[in-house]
Amino acid sequence: MSALTLDEAVRMLGAAVKAAEGMDVKVAIAVLDPRGDLIALHRMDGALWRSVPISQGKAAASAAWDAPSGDLRERWDQPVLRALSMMENGRLIPWPGAVPVRHGDELVGAVGVSGARPEQDEEIAKAGVAAI
């Protein structure tokens, strides 16, 4: 089993920040492991405080289901998804802005972004993943 390294997380943060700057938006970017534990976090100057927990919640949802967080919106009323969210004290956020990170076929984490429009958040997260 491979693991997402701190070096990879930092590279993803750098690429995501560069993408956000290119869009002229201020965001928070969270890199989590497959269990949803934080590896690295970057809150850009001027990003709202609430973007931090939202970026983590999107990434946690993405990691939990190995899917982009926005893909979970339509399925969120299913009992299993609701139950896990309740077990996680509501920290899983099924809204666009996070994508899984893989080493080959293995899920090693997720990157979540918050602070811009949902489609921009997801584009920024994808830019981060593309850096590794």
Walk me through what this model shows.
The chain is α+β, with helices and mostly antiparallel strands. The chain has one domain (6-129): Haem-degrading domain (Beta-Lactamase, 2-Layer Sandwich). Helices cover 41% and strands 20% of the residues. The chain has helices at residues 6-23, 51-65, 79-87, 118-129; strands at 28-32, 38-43, 98-103, 106-114. A four-stranded antiparallel sheet has the order 2-1-4-3. β3 (98-103) and β4 form a beta hairpin. The longest helix has 18 residues, at 6-23.
Structural class: alpha+beta
Question: Would you identify the CATH H-level superfamily?
Answer: Haem-degrading domain
Uncertain runs: none
Largest sheet: 4 strands, antiparallel
Distance between the termini: 17 Å
CATH class (first level) name: Alpha Beta
Number of domains: 1
Helix content: 40-55%
- The CATH topology is given as Beta-Lactamase
Kindly report the spatial arrangement of strands forming the biggest sheet: 2-1-4-3
Query: So how many helices?
Result: 4
Summed over residues and divided by their number, the pLDDT gives a mean of 94
Provide the fold topology:
Blueprint: H1 6-23, E1 28-32, E2 38-43, H2 51-65, H3 79-87, E3 98-103, E4 106-114, H4 118-129
Antiparallel strand pairs: 1-2, 1-4, 3-4
Helix pairs in contact: 1-4
